[in-house]
Each structure stands twice: as structure tokens, then as C-alpha cells.
Write a structure and sequence with these properties.
Blueprint lengths: L2 H19 L4 E6 L6 H10 L13 H5 L10 E8 L14 E2 L8 H20 L4 E4 L7 H7 L4 E2 L5 E2 L7 E8 L18 H5 L5 E3 L2 E2 L5 H7 L15 E3 L3 H4 L19 H4 L3 H5 L3 H7 L9 H22 L1
Parallel strand pairs: 3-10
Antiparallel strand pairs: 1-2, 2-7, 4-7, 5-6, 8-9
Helix pairs in contact: 1-4
GO molecular function: epoxyqueuosine reductase activity
Main location: cytoplasm
InterPro entries: 4Fe4S_Fe-S-bd, 4Fe4S_Fe_S_CS, QueG, QueG_DUF1730
């Protein structure tokens, strides 16, 4: 091992140590470069219009595949995972309206950016002049791919990153920087012959293993879609009004999920006590107050009301038909 190799190893160990000290659950590092294997997959996915109305997915195709186009002289991609699996799931009663676990607390963009900012500052204070940028699901970065290349897990058949120790309920963030580091190796795919996520998806959004038609996903319908929800989706939402966790909930690897340690991800008392009537009767004022720092702001008040009415009207029709 050369002196340069030793320096890279020491710096990488420092980065990972500081990542854990800043509250992240896992940290891995990969070499910044062109994602050759992903290029045809992404192109095929876009050509099949699986992005639906998410037009931004087709933007910056070259930057999405090469981080060196996002950060000048980029050498390394530092990937981190932050667990958001809750100690208790909402709602408590069967038949109640549901939101995705990732939306229980404060918007993860705020939380991860703060932690990544502290990590980048620690790196700069320890090593010196390091040029880098922080990314949290807000730029054309294929975060799950980079996390997998960094040895933090593998991309499962439901297209989420899976970690053998804690499942898939993670937020992913990156620091892309010009620092030369020691790189981790990817891990094998441990999905095997399991098809539980494909079998459980009520809208058949997982068209084949490892391929998701985003335009059919309940999360897409309840968050990204800005117009009326298609009638063919009626009766398939299973009470989800913001996001969906079905493919993750049925995944055997999530039996290893552990409650998170991030106070900001805990639901407020108001949200924890929400009943179906609270959802149905929510006013714009209550929405703005309860979800002031929440991911639910993304769907806006009108979008949330649309989702609730779609689910509740479906239940009413089902009851009347019975």
C-alpha cells in the first residue's frame, strides 16, 4: 500500500466516523464517474413514459448519469442513509386513512441538509480546502444507484434500496466532492426469487422485477399528479391519502427495521391523534399549521382534499353497492 493509499483510507475512515457522529446510520463512498449501466435503463424507462407528469425526470439526462457534470473535478460520491422507521405506525385503527411513514415528521430535506452540511464542514475543517455539494433528492442525482455502488445495499425489485441490517426505510443523501478517497464495493442482490412486492402492489405499478411504472404508483397519484385521479385506480388505494408503503411493508427484509433515533421524524401530537373525521373536515388553516414543516405541503391543501375525497367516495360506493 502506497502513502497515497494510506491517506485515502484514513480520510475515508474519518468521513464515515463523522457521518455516524452526525446521526447517519450508514455511510459509503464510491468513485464519481459515468453510470454506464444505468444509461440504457434510464432511457428505456423514460421512453416508456413511466415518469408520467414528472417531467423533471427527463431533464438533465447527462447530469443524472455523471456527477462530474454537477461538481467540477468531482472524485468521490459520499452516500449516507438516515433511518425513518417509526416506533409506532399511524393510524392505530384499521380502516383509518393513512400517510406514508416518511411523512410523519419534519420534511427530510431540512433534516438531511443540515446533517450533511455539518458533515461537509467537518471534512473541510479536518482536511482543508474541499469543494463539494450537498444533494438531498433535489437535483438530478440517482441516489439509490450511488448508495448501492457505495456498498450500502442493493436496489430491490420494488426499486427501493435494501440494506441487510435494517431494510429499506431510509432517506438517502450525498456529498459529491473533489476529494480523493478510498472506495467501497457493491453488495450482491439478496432479493432472490421473492416477489412479494410485485404481488402486493394494488395498482400493478411494479411491471417487472426492478422496474416501476411511476405513473401507476399510489405515491405518484397522491403526490405528483396535479389533475383528477384516473377512475381505473378507484378501489385500489387501501386508504392511502399521501404516499404508500405497501411494497416496503411486505418486504421480508423490513423485519429487520428498527425505530429511528431522529426526534424531527416523530409525528406531532396533533397528527398522532388524527381520526378519519379530522382528515375529512380539515381546513386550510389546520393544514398549514399541522403540516407547516411536513412533506405533505408538497401535495398542497387542494391535493390532499382530492385524495381524501377519492378514497372516501370509493368506500361509500363500495358500501352502497353492498
Amino acid at each position: 500500500m502506497t502513502a497515497a493509499d494510506i491517506i485515502r483510507q484514513e480520510r475515508s475512515q474519518f468521513v464515515k466516523k463523522k457521518a455516524l457522529e452526525n446521526g447517519f446510520d450508514f455511510c459509503g463512498i464510491s468513485a464519481a464517474g459515468f453510470l454506464e449501466e444505468e444509461a440504457p435503463r434510464l432511457e428505456n424507462w423514460l421512453n416508456r413514459n413511466y415518469q408520467g407528469q414528472m417531467a423533471y425526470m427527463a431533464n438533465h439526462f447527462d447530469k443524472r448519469l455523471d456527477p462530474r457534470k454537477l461538481v467540477d473535478d468531482a472524485r468521490s460520491v459520499i452516500s449516507v442513509l438516515l433511518n425513518y422507521y417509526p416506533e409506532e405506525q399511524l393510524p392505530q385503527q384499521p380502516g383509518d386513512l393513512k400517510i406514508s411513514k416518511y411523512a410523519y415528521g419534519t420534511d427530510y430535506h431540512y433534516v438531511l441538509k443540515e446533517k450533511l452540511g455539518a458533515l461537509l464542514l467537518a471534512i473541510q475543517e479536518e482536511i482543508g480546502e474541499v469543494s463539494g455539494r450537498i444533494f438531498v433528492d433535489s437535483a438530478p442525482v440517482m441516489d439509490k444507484v450511488w448508495a448501492a455502488k457505495s456498498g450500502l445495499g442493493w436496489v430491490g425489485k420494488h426499486s427501493n434500496l435494501l440494506n441487510r441490517n435494517m431494510g429499506s426505510f431510509f432517506f438517502i443523501g450525498e456529498i459529491i466532492c473533489d476529494l480523493d478517497l478510498a472506495y467501497d464495493t457493491s453488495v450482491p442482490d439478496y432479493c432472490g426469487t421473492c416477489t412479494r412486492c410485485l404481488d402486493a402492489c394494488p395498482t400493478d405499478a411494479i411491471t417487472e422485477p426492478f422496474v416501476v411504472d411511476g405513473s401507476k404508483c399510489i405515491s405518484y397519484y397522491t403526490i405528483e399528479l396535479k389533475e383528477a385521479i384516473p377512475e381505473e385506480a378507484r378501489g385500489k388505494f387501501d386508504n392511502w391519502v399521501f404516499g404508500c408503503d405497501i411494497c416496503q411493508d411486505v418486504c421480508p427484509w423490513n423485519r429487520f427495521a428498527k425505530p429511528h433515533r431522529t426526534e424531527a421524524f416523530r409525528p406531532s401530537d396533533a397528527l398522532a391523534g388524527f381520526s378519519n373525521s379530522d382528515w375529512e373536515e380539515i381546513t386550510e388553516e389546520v393544514f398549514k399549521e399541522v403540516f407547516r414543516k411536513s412533506p405533505l405541503k408538497r401535495t398542497k391543501y387542494e391535493g390532499l382534499k382530492r385524495n381524501i375525497e377519492f378514497v372516501q367516495l370509493t368506500k361509500e360506493k363500495s358500501t352502497s353497492n353492498w
